[in-house]
Amino acid sequence: MSKKQIIITSVIIGVLAVAVFVIGFSLGRGQSDSGSDKNSGGTTVADSGNGSGSADSTTISGGSGGSTEDVTGSGSSTVDNGSGGTTEDTGSGSAGNTTEAGGGTTTVINATSKLDTGNLTEKGSGYEGIKGTGNFNYGEALQKSILFYELQRSGDLPEKVRCNWRGDSGLTDGSDAGLDLTGGWYDAGDHVKFNLPMAYSTAMLAWSVYEDRKAYEESGQLEYILADIKWAADYLIKCHPEDEVFYYQVGDGGIDHSWWGPAEVMSMDRPSYKVTKDSPGSAVTGEAAAALAATAIVFKDVDKEYSALCLAHAKSLYSFSESTKSDAGYTAANGYYNSWSGWEDELAWAGAWIYMATGDEAYLKKAEAAYPNASQDYNWSMCWDDVHIGAAVLLAKATGKKTYTDAVEKHLDYWTTGTSDGERITYTPKGLAWLDQWGSLRYATTTGFIAAVYSESGLCSDKKKDNYWKFAVSQADYALGSTGFSYMIGFGDSYPESPHHRTANGSATNNLNDPQKARHTLYGALVGGPDANDGYTDETSNYTTNEVACDYNAGFTGLLAKLYSKYHGETLKDFGAVEVIDEYEMYVEAGINVDGQDFTEIKAYVYNLSGWPARKAANLEMRYYVDLSEVYEAGGSVDSIEITTNYMQSGTAAGLKPYDEGKHIYYLSVVFDDGKLYPGGQEHYRQEIQVRLRNPEGSWDTSNDPSFEGLSLGNTALTEKIALFEDGEHIFGQEP
Fold first, then answer.
1. What is the model's pLDDT at position 528?
2. 190 in active site
3. Are 264 and 614 in contact (CB under 8 A)?
4. In angstroms, rounded to a whole number, what is the distance separating the alpha carbons of residues 722 and 230?
5. 500 catalytic, yes or no?
6. For residues 622-654, b (16+ Cβ closer than 10 Å) or e, as one string?
7. Burial level of 83, CB count in 10 A (0-12/13-18/19+)?
8. Using CA atoms, how far apart are residues 605 and 615, in angstroms rounded to an integer?
9. Secondary structure, 3-state, 176-224
10. What is the pTM of this model?
């Protein structure tokens, strides 16, 4: 190719690169959307971003909201290779069919996660169990909804897990308070642990087991749902170190939401927040009491000691909540999980659960005394903020009183056929009972669970019983794909691929648009859902329709268990969120800075785009192999070689080490153990080094060096002739 042709080709490539960048950036830009607010009219609070062009929006949304935010990065990054040229890097981590130094392509060999997932795969090995008779396979849906909670876990994970891309995280939580507050669930697509929605979700899952334990047994899911409940309950117990002290949050919402990356490599401060007698939070302590009382019930025949422990904490927390009746100290969650409905609904809800756990009539009286003071909004939904309908169902079943049956039926009539006054919820053209733009599916499926529970209670007429059950089925089916699209990730043939979820997205560059499609499948997660016209956008940046949350799946899981009880459905054998790793997690791009008569100076970029799971390079070694035969032939030795570093963004040059002394082959060892190389932002996921090897005695020949092969002067490119070792294990490149 002539010089003129090279120049023309370079110009064309440059223009195309710019075009791709501009189009990609335009398509990938984040959007902010104001959310409606049941009580306050919907306030939108905008925050400045993370200093690298990102922004974070928080929509405060009363009973309908939750943790809502957005982090928008700056699109693809163009990285200067230091030699007058550029290499574009999107941070996607894909190295399949990547152009190598010296031309040609490299084929990625499937790697293996260090996590112990046994023989599980995301495809499974066929189906087992009772064949279903419903419109969808409710057994598989239930199985995947339960798995979602494992994907939300924080803390020190079990030795054996069902996912190869979630690892230990948040291991210093509580250290600022001198406590161990590890564990629990990350709330949604973020990494804050908000105890109000977490406790609500725990109570709802336990309620489902209380209602339909046989369904979990028959589907083979009891072990897993109990483990999920216990994971959260253990954490709630840790948060209650004294009778009148409860830690209700770990992590600062503003700080957390300004960074977009995997949980395993978080580096921000994670403060702990507590309520006390002098600075109380009656709603969150009441909800925690309900969660632990419900947990005590479902564990009573499994682990009596643990059940008793949960019940003791539930009683203590209830007393704390009841004696203070104030949320004055519950402030850190403001803007994310305000308790708009107050605390009386939690006192009624928790009182009913403790009564069910103990049979103590005093708690039933407490629950009934609190109930009239709770919000009585029949035209809303059971949710993390307002649990009065749940309390009404429990009290109706416990007492049969008309006060409670009327309240439940007016609520369910509003959601189904309409109230006696003609009021009825909005329905989308395709059949979703649509309450609010924020988490529309969460409300519909949770109300479906309430309807299913009540329809089986024997407390309503046959006509209403049928209406309520049909409603429950219709809302579950909408979520699972009656429109042709499933809103449960990983279920069916067409489902969301870009949820607003940091760890599933797997960005290494602190940019929610990079990658645009999630690297990992967040199995079982129910996304927010469509608008009132069935409109839906599958974009990471759209946290209104596409965020996930623990409370979104809570009532949905209960509904699926109800449907399984009647219609059954097979589950997948040997199933887990265990993905094939088809991209390099860590790799090297390299070139020659300068090549002299007695020296060579190499320049290398070491990448950490790890995602199975994401991790900091705590013990990573790069090996550049050299053949010193000419040095030995001239009377020198390995000790003759001087090693100097020109520029080290990270890592330490640890000298030349023997590989095959008989053939005089050695390797330059560069060790990365300072924690700077990790998939957490533009300045972290790639580190540059420049190292010079020189023989001051004169003899020097690079042509026989194994790692020199294919490197070019003034440019860097991916090369497999340089190897990487992690914890002593060969993970990338070739040895001679």
1. 98
2. yes
3. yes
4. 46
5. yes
6. bbbbbbbebbeeeebebebbeeeeeeeebbebe
7. middle
8. 18
9. HHCCCCCCCECCCCCCCEEHHHHHHHHHHHHHHHHHHHHHHHHCCCHHH
10. 0.86
Predicted local distance difference test score (pLDDT) of residue 111: 78
Token representation of residue 635: 């009377």
Dig out the tokens for 505 from the structure. 């997205």
Helix axes 222-238, 304-324, angle to 10 degrees: 50
Which of 327, 409, 436, 547 is the catalytic position? 547
Cβ-contact 272, 299 below 8 angstroms: no
**For the purposes of burial, counting CB atoms within 10 Å of the CB of 381, is it exposed (0-12), middle (13-18) or buried (19 or more)?**
buried
| C-alpha distance from residue 253 to each of 202, 257, 259, 334, 337 (Å) | 21, 6, 11, 9, 10
Give the HSE-up count for residue 684: Cα atoms under 13 Å, Cβ half-sphere.
Answer: 25
Q: Which backbone phi and psi does 458 adopt, to 5 degrees?
A: 80, 10
Query: What are the helix (H) ranges across 549-647?
Result: 550-567, 629-633
Residues 6+ apart with CB under 8 A from 376: 388, 407
* Of 37, 69, 190, 436, catalytic: 190
Q: What does the pLDDT read at residue 363?
A: 98
Strand, coil or helix: what is 331? Answer: coil
Active site residue 538: yes
H or E segment to which residue 403 belongs: helix 402-415
- Token pair recorded at residue 240: 């209650």
Q: Which residue has the tokens 């002539």?
A: 2
Question: Of 538, 673, 697, 735, which residue is the catalytic one?
Answer: 538
- Contact residues for 470 (Cβ-Cβ < 8 A; gap 6+): none
Question: CA–CA separation, 179 vs 238, rounded Å?
Answer: 8
Q: How many degrees, rounded to 5, is the angle at CA 67 between CA 354 and CA 375? A: 45
**Distance of alpha carbon 706 from alpha carbon 442, whole angstroms:** 58
Burial 584-596 (b: 16+ CB within 10 A, else e): bbbbbbbbbbeee
Token digits of residue 279: 């600075």
Query: From CA 280, how far away is CA 19, in angstroms rounded?
Result: 56
Residue 47 appears among annotated catalytic residues: no
CA 609 to chain centre: 17
- Going from the C-alpha of 246 to that of each of 252, 276, 289, 553, the distances in angstroms are 17, 7, 11, 25
CB-count exposure of residue 186 (10 Å: 0-12, 13-18, 19+): buried
Long-range CB contacts (within 8 A, 24+) of 44-50: 45/335, 47/254, 47/257, 47/258, 49/258, 50/258, 50/259, 50/260, 50/510
Whole-angstrom Cα distance, residue 317 to residue 323? Answer: 10
Catalytic entry in 240, 313, 500, 568: 500
Q: What are phi and psi of 562, to 5 degrees?
A: -60, -45
* Eight-class DSSP state of 100: B
SS3 assignment, position 62: helix
Give the pLDDT score at 110. 53
536: CB partners within 8 A, 6+ apart: 485, 487, 529, 530, 545
pLDDT along the chain (736 residues), means of 10: 36 37 32 31 28 29 37 37 31 34 42 92 98 98 98 98 98 98 98 98 99 98 98 98 98 97 97 98 98 98 98 98 98 96 98 98 98 96 98 98 98 97 97 97 98 97 97 98 98 98 98 96 98 97 96 98 98 98 95 94 97 95 98 96 95 97 97 96 97 94 95 96 96 95
